[in-house]
């Protein structure tokens, strides 16, 4: 994760849009969220926008579109290959989380798509689960778009504000101290992300030893 973050920080110009869009898209469309949480990419992108390497408004549009399109692809994959998808060996250690996502989908319906956007593992799984459950695409798209906009704008703007604060600190206390503060902030964010993923994996492994077979998801069609 640290290597990807460092690579993002070294980017310049329009390539930033493409790389960030690809990471956000792949999170749900290709289940890349199991490896690299998308919010890390967009927070870093927000920092780059604060340095005027990219336009913040354009970046926000690119991120929201990539999130919505990526989830739509994940939905279609789930709709077509849901049973085989849920039987993948890679998901075995995450079975309790998958069951939790199933339960959330049963209880909240399409609103679960919005809620899932703010949790790394659910963000990768929920679109496919919604497709597997045959949720009407129009209903899915509405909550997908709302979640993608709230998530993308919120985290990217947060990164932008952090980057702006860095520049203000640099003017006040000197660039060396500011760099130290920025490094500490980035390392703290990465450590938090890694620890959160480890906790999720640990919970998945513990639950996997005692979890029952997942219950079928009811048809959510009209």
Descriptive notes:
With 222 residues, this protein is mainly α. α4 crosses α7, α4 (56-86) packs across α8 (137-173) and α8 (137-173) runs antiparallel to α9 (175-208). The termini are far apart. Helix content is 77%, strand content 0%. The relative contact order is 0.15. The chain has nine helices and no strands. The model has no long low-confidence stretch (mean pLDDT 78). It has one domain.
Shape: globular
The low-confidence parts are: none
Question: What separation lies between the terminal Cα atoms?
Answer: 41 Å
Overall mean pLDDT stands at 78
Name the helix and strand elements from N-terminus to C-terminus, one letter apiece: HHHHHHHHH
Notable features of this structure?
globular, mainly alpha, single chain
Give the helices and strands, then pairings.
Layout (H helix, E strand, L loop, with lengths): L1 H8 L5 H15 L8 H13 L5 H31 L8 H14 L2 H6 L3 H13 L4 H37 L1 H34 L14
Q: How would you summarize what this structure contains?
A:
With 222 residues, the protein is mainly alpha-helical.
């Amino acid at each position: 994760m640290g290597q990807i973050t460092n690579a993002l920080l070294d980017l310049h110009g329009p390539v930033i849009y493409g790389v960030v869009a690809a990471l956000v898209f792949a999170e749900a469309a290709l289940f890349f969220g199991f490896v690299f949480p998308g919010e890390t990419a967009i927070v870093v992108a927000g920092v780059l926008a604060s340095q005027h390497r990219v336009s913040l408004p354009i970046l926000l549009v690119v991120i929201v579109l990539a999130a919505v399109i990526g989830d739509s692809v994940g939905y279609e994959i789930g709709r077509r290959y849901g049973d085989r998808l849920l039987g993948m060996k890679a998901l075995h250690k995450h079975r309790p989380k998958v069951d939790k996502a199933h339960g959330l989908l049963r209880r909240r319906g399409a609103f679960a798509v919005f809620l899932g956007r703010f949790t790394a593992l659910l963000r990768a799984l929920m679109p496919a689960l919604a497709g597997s459950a045959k949720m009407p695409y129009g209903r899915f798209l509405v909550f997908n778009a709302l979640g993608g906009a709230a998530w993308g704008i919120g985290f990217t703007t947060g990164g932008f504000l952090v980057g702006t604060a860095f520049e203000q600190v640099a003017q006040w206390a000197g660039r060396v101290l500011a760099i130290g503060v920025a490094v500490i902030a980035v390392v703290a964010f990465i450590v938090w992300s890694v620890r959160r993923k480890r906790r999720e994996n640990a919970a998945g492994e513990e639950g996997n030893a005692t979890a029952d077979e997942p219950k079928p998801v009811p048809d959510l069609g009209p």
